[in-house]
Design brief:
4-stranded parallel sheet; two-stranded antiparallel sheet; 2 helices; alpha/beta
């Protein structure tokens, strides 16, 4: 089964330095998606005209900035309306690296993305903080 879309919640923030750093990471993320035949679908919050990139489907938030959970729900609704079986979900400040490393990790809490052999990031949202440790 093919993964067609990479769903990204995106808010660059209001601090100019943070905003620029997140914009650069997001640009790299979009380039990565295109390189790996994933179509980016972005929930854009407080975007300026120059923030929109070609080759991306944008869902624009015209209201108040949503926290990550409700923002992901907007993208989940979009995903549920497709015929796709799987999708990739990410924040705009996450840049995934494809590796052939299939090491397992012990996971205790947090929000993270796991990169597997064929790049199927898994996002987990437990209530505790994240600790990632390679398994023995």
């Amino acid at each position: 089964m093919k993964i067609n879309n990479c769903y990204i919640i995106s808010w660059f923030g209001r601090d100019p330095d943070l905003r620029e750093r997140r914009r650069r990471m997001h640009q790299t993320q979009i380039e990565w998606c295109h390189k790996h035949s994933l179509h980016p679908v972005v929930f854009a919050q407080e975007y300026e005209d120059g923030d929109y990139l070609d080759g991306v489907t944008y869902i624009r938030n015209e209201g108040a900035v949503l926290h990550p959970g409700p923002a992901r729900n907007v993208l989940l609704k979009h995903f549920y309306q497709t015929d796709d079986d799987y999708a990739v979900f990410a924040d705009n400040d996450i840049v995934n690296e494809v590796t052939l490393n299939t090491s397992l990790y012990v996971i205790t809490g947090g929000v993270f993305s796991v990169t597997c052999k064929y790049f199927v990031p898994v996002v987990i949202f437990p209530e505790e903080s994240l600790t990632l440790k390679p398994t023995p």
